[in-house]
Design a protein that fits this description.
Elements lengths: L1 H17 L6 E6 L2 E7 L2 H4 L6 H13 L7 E7 L3 H9 L4 E6 L17 H17 L1
Parallel strand pairs: 3-4
Antiparallel strand pairs: 1-2, 1-3
């Protein structure tokens, strides 16, 4: 099974490369079966969210009809970026296996500023009530 995964990752990465994309591919696997696969499509789609990991999570979630992928593992060609890692965590993926270390050092240049307003407390209450109803 693992050789099949390696081969699929390489073939998908080659496809991305030929399209002029960063040659990264990702697979979501559940109980030894490939549920979804994807390649980077940022340049093609002009969408900064179109990383292989995110696309494969979206496909797997649709196929399984659940955003929780806790019974799934991800196989990816390169260590995921910060954005993808957060989406992977949110989707509850169990384990991530990667083949190549990402040497790119991303320097966050965006300022993130906390705002205070009368709506801050209203939003806290809204969120609190929402989660109380769930439990």
């Amino acid at each position: 099974m693992i050789d099949k995964i390696y081969e699929k990752l390489y073939k998908l990465s080659l496809k991305a490369y030929k399209m002029g994309e960063v040659p990264v591919a990702a697979l979501v696997v559940r109980k030894g079966k490939i549920i979804s696969s994807a390649i980077n499509k940022r340049s093609y789609s002009h969408n900064p969210l179109d990383h292989a990991e995110i696309i494969s999570i979206i496909k797997a979630s649709k196929k399984l009809k659940d955003w929780r992928l806790s019974e799934c593992d991800m196989y990816v060609t390169m260590y995921p970026c910060h954005m993808c890692l957060e989406v992977i965590k949110e989707s509850r993926i169990n384990k991530v296996y990667y083949l190549v270390q990402n040497k790119k050092n991303i320097n966050l240049k965006t300022d993130i500023i906390k705002l205070d307003s009368i709506y801050s407390q209203k939003l806290v209450e809204l969120l609190t009530n929402f989660f109380k109803k769930l439990r």
